[in-house]
Every structure is written in structure tokens, then in C-alpha cells.
Design goal:
- The protein is of the alpha+beta class.
- The chain is 30% helix and 34% strand.
- The chain is built from 11 helices and 25 strands.
- The protein has helices at residues 17-23, 77-83, 161-168, 170-186, 202-217, 238-248, 295-307, 309-327, 364-371, 382-392, 443-465; strands at 5-10, 30-33, 44-48, 53-58, 61-66, 69-73, 100-105, 129-134, 136-141, 146-152, 191-193, 197-198, 223-236, 253-259, 262-268, 271-276, 279-282, 285-290, 330-343, 347-358, 379-380, 403-408, 413-416, 421-425, 428-437.
- The strands form 2 sheets. Strands 1, 2, 3, 9, 10, 11, 12, 13, 14, 15, 21, 24 and 25 form a 13-stranded antiparallel beta sheet that branches. Strands 4, 5, 6, 7, 8, 16, 17, 18, 19, 20, 22 and 23 form a 12-stranded antiparallel beta sheet that branches.
- Helix 6 (238-248) packs across helix 11 (443-465).
- Residues 204-453 form the Chorismate-utilising enzyme C-terminal domain.
Length: 470
């Protein structure tokens, strides 16, 4: 049985914000954002809202809501999600998504896959996983400068697609877009924030890194990703904050998602796993240096990163880990690219590429679960690194270092690593900065790097939305 997805041509906008503002009044809106027009790396944006089914995992329970009925399950969340995805493989040639799952898989969902200690404090109320089954989406193709409303009626026969078509119609969207733009302009001060503060003093950060290095010396591990958290109080509309952030740090694997419990603002430069036509690809980032203040300094920094034996070794450790992870569900695992330089507004990165062919009978969710969470934000070996993270980071990571993305009904998948990611929870907004610690890591350099990675995010919000300014 095929998935009879319909494509309806709709207006194309250089910025998908113009589409998102028109549907965000619906439940659980999500925007998978390539960062266009300011970022040149990405191609597609996916926007949707009002899922037919929602799955939210909190600890050992996943709460499923469908057709107004709620039930709970202790089943593995990845396995449970698979039961709500269609088992058909009918692709839309020109688009990556034909309806399916959109949402996030938080770092702490890894506790459902591995037996980990429970030491860090859990002080964020967002679910460990929040995924919706969305039978429609607006997909913008920035390469072809075309936009489509994708409707997959097979996924939710009773869904009110006529209302979605009305909302996306030319007449409705032109009037609403004008009204919404005026509203956003008039509400520029409706987001306010206090200054961010780290949850670790310098002495505490230093002590934790020394402990990591002691574990490495003892042979427990080769690398551990360690992070500090920056938190502030906020009030107002988090979407206004996201619009400012994407202007300051356009990133190819960004995302914005709203749910009852809060919001996720992700400005991620890193792909976790992509699956297209049964070919898997992961692109770990390891190795970072700040952009220079002058062109000459910037070029020198880039060359220093490319020549750094420490950063190349750190990157190679994670490449080996991901080769092993992909091998669980893939054959012909290869490394077509090592240590490629990618440059963003705030930093240069070293990025490698690992690919594999999905084994017959395996699904996108099998691939995701067998590799989750991503090795680039845990360390090597993965489980021992996660145990050390749990011991030394005082609070749980929640969505940070998990993944946001889509799993399409046609079998495609693309997910990010949720770094450069902020979480709104109650009246608090949180952001993490971290890095991979290895045997020859220098504590002061690692501390400054963890700040450099998120400095542009924190300063953008403080400078534009400071409570002191208002």
C-alpha cells in the first residue's frame, strides 16, 4: 500500500520564519531550520504543527496522546515510536519529508538504552523525548526556491486537512502574514532576560577537568565531553529570541520547537545522522577554535586548527566510535572525509564524515537508537564517558546533546546534535558550552573554548533583551 502524499505548491520565502509565524498558533509547532538565507550549508526547511499523535517520555513512562485519548507505556521509546510510523517506503523524489515524526530525543533518553547511574540533579521539567506524528508539513527548498504543502492523508484519515489547506492558501496567508509581521514589530520588547550565570565556578570547572584527566590516565577512557551550563531568568516570547539568535549565528541544523512545558531553540552546526535511500551519514565535529578578529588572524587560527595534532586525534577517536555505532545497523561503513574545515560566525570546526548502508530489515529508528546519544558529545568509550559525565556535571543535560530532527514516513531521516541549544523551562532559560577532554587538554584553554562556543548566543540575548535595558 502506498503513502498517497499530496503536494500543493505554496509561496516561497527566503526566510522560513514567514511561514512559521502563520502556523505557530497551532499546537506543538516545530521548525527544522537550515539557517537560510544567512547560512549556505543547508537546503530544506520543514515546518509543521498540530500533530495527530504525540509521544512524551518522562523517566520510565512514555505518554501517548491520539484522538483525544491518553495512555502510557513502559516500552522502549524508540520501539514505541516505530509502531506509530507507517511501514511504507514511497518517496517523494524532490522532498526529504512526506509526513512522519518530528521532534526531539533528549540526551537523558540514553538512560532507557543503557544502565547509567543517577547522580546529577534533574531540575528541568521538559520531557526526555517529545515527538509528534505530523501528517502534513510545509517544506521549503532553498536551492530550487520552491515551497510545498505536503499532505499525507494515509497517516491520519480523520485529520482536518481542509483547515490546513485554508491556512496555507494564498488569500489567507497574505493577510495573516501582514498582520503577524506587524505584531512581531510591535512586540520587540516582549522578551526580556537577566544576565546568564554559569553553574560552575572556575575552581569547580578546573577540579572536574582534573578528575577527567585522572580517569584518562587510569585507563578508564580516552575522551570525555564535559560541559558547563549557563542560566538566566526570562519572560515573554521565546520565538523573538530565536529570531535574533538565528541572525547572529545562522546554522545548518537549527530548530525551534514549542510545547506546553517550554521551548527549544537550537542553533546547531552539527548533523547527527542522516538516512536517505538507505544510506546513512554522520558528520561529527571535534576540534574547535575561535574566529580571528582580523582576516589574517582568522586565517592563522584556521590553519592552526587544521594542523593541531591534539584536535585531529580527538576527532579520530570519535570517528572510530561512530564507525562502531553505525556498524550495528549498517554494512560497508566508510570514512570518506576526515578533518574538513567548516567555518561559522563564531568558530572554526574540524568535521569528518562516516557513511554506511542500512542493513535489510533495519529502520531509521533502529539506526538512531543504536547510535544514541551521539559519540561526539559523550566521549570514548561511550558508556564509561557517560558515567563520568553523570558523576561530574552537577545537573542533567535534558535536551542538550540529544537530537532534533525528522523521521519521514518514506524512510528518510535527518537529525542534529543539540549543541548551541537553549531550553526555556518555566521562567528559566539554559544554555550549555562544552568540549572533549583528552589527556593533553589544557584546563584554561578548555574553559575558554566552552565559553567561546556559546558566547555569541549569550551576548546576543543579553545585549538585545536585557531586563536592565527595558
Amino acid at each position: 500500500m502506498s503513502i498517497a502524499a499530496r503536494l500543493i505548491s505554496v509561496p516561497y520565502y527566503p526566510s522560513s520564519a514567514d511561514w512559521f509565524v502563520q502556523v505557530r498558533q497551532l499546537a506543538m509547532p516545530i521548525w527544522l531550520d537550515s539557517g537560510r538565507p544567512h547560512s549556505n550549508y543547508g537546503r530544506f526547511d520543514i515546518i509543521s504543527a498540530d500533530p495527530a499523535i504525540t509521544l512524551k517520555t518522562v523517566g520510565q513512562l512514555t505518554h501517548v496522546e491520539a484522538d483525544g485519548i491518553c495512555k502510557s507505556s513502559t516500552e522502549n521509546p524508540f520501539t514505541l515510536l516505530q509502531t506509530y510510523l507507517p511501514h511504507h517506503h514511497n518517496t517523494l523524489e524532490q522532498l526529504p519529508f512526506c509526513g512522519g515524526a518530528l521532534g526531539y530525543f533528549g540526551y537523558d533518553l540514553g538512560r532507557r538504552l543503557e544502565n547509567l547511574p543517577e547522580l546529577a540533579r534533574q531540575d528541568i521539567g521538559l520531557p526526555d523525548m517529545c515527538v509528534g506524528i505530523y501528517p502534513w508539513a510545509i517544506v521549503q527548498d532553498h536551492q530550487e526556491q520552491q515551497s510545498w504543502l505536503v499532505i499525507n492523508q494515509h497517516m491520519a484519515p480523520a485529520y482536518n486537512f481542509l483547515e490546513i489547506e485554508r491556512v496555507c492558501s494564498n488569500e489567507f496567508q497574505k493577510a495573516r502574514l501582514h498582520d503577524l509581521k506587524q505584531t512581531l514589530k510591535s512586540d520587540e520588547n516582549s522578551f526580556n532576560i537577566s544576565n546568564f550565570e554559569s553553574n560552575l565556578k572556575v575552581i569547580d570547572y578546573s577540579s572536574a577537568i582534573k578528575r577527567v584527566k585522572a580517569y584518562i590516565t587510569a585507563g578508564d577512557c580516552y575522551q570525555v565531553n564535559f560541559a558547563q551550563r549557563f542560566s538566566a531568568e526570562f519572560e515573554g516570547d521565546s520565538f523573538l529570541a530565536y529570531l535574533k539568535l538565528r541572525d547572529s549565528l545562522p546554522s545548518p541544523f537549527s530548530a525551534y520547537m514549542e510545547l506546553k512545558e517550554g521551548a527549544i531553540l537550537s542553533l546547531s552546526p552539527e548533523r547527527f545522522i542522516k538516512l536517505e535511500q538507505q544510506v546513512a551519514e554522520t558528520k561529527p565535529i571535534k576540534g574547535t577554535i575561535a574566529r580571528g578578529k582580523t582576516p589574517d588572524e582568522d586565517l592563522a587560527n584556521a590553519k592552526a586548527l587544521e594542523a593541531s595534532l591534539k584536535d585531529r586525534a580527538e576527532n579520530l577517536m570519535i570517528v572510530d566510535l561512530l564507525r562502531n555505532d553505525l556498524s550495528k545497523t549498517c554494512t560497508d561503513v566508510k570514512v570518506p572525509e576526515l578533518f574538513s574545515l567548516q567555518s561559522f560566525a563564531n568558530v572554526h570546526h574540524l568535521v569528518s564524515t562516516v557513511t554506511g548502508n542500512l542493513k535489510p530489515g533495519a529502520t531509521a529508528l533502529d539506526l538512531l537508537a543504536s547510535s544514541f546519544p551521539g559519540g561526539s558529545i559523550t566521549g570514548a568509550p561511550k558508556i564509561r564517558a557517560m558515567e563520568i559525565i553523570e558523576e561530574l556535571e552537577p545537573v542533567r543535560r535534558s535536551v542538550y546533546c540529544g537530537s532534533l530532527g525528522y523521521i519521514s514516513a518514506c524512510g528518510n531521516m535527518d537529525t542534529n546534535i543539540a549543541i548551541r541549544t537553549l531550553l526555556c523551562d518555566g521562567n528559566k532559560i539554559h544554555c550549555w558550552g562544552g568540549g572533549g577532554i583528552v589527556a593533553d587538554s589544557e584546563i584554561e584553554k578548555e574553559y575558554q573554548e566552552s565559553i567561546a562556543k556559546v558566547k555569541v548566543l549569550l551576548e546576543t540575548l543579553e545585549q538585545n533583551f536585557s531586563k536592565q535595558k527595558s
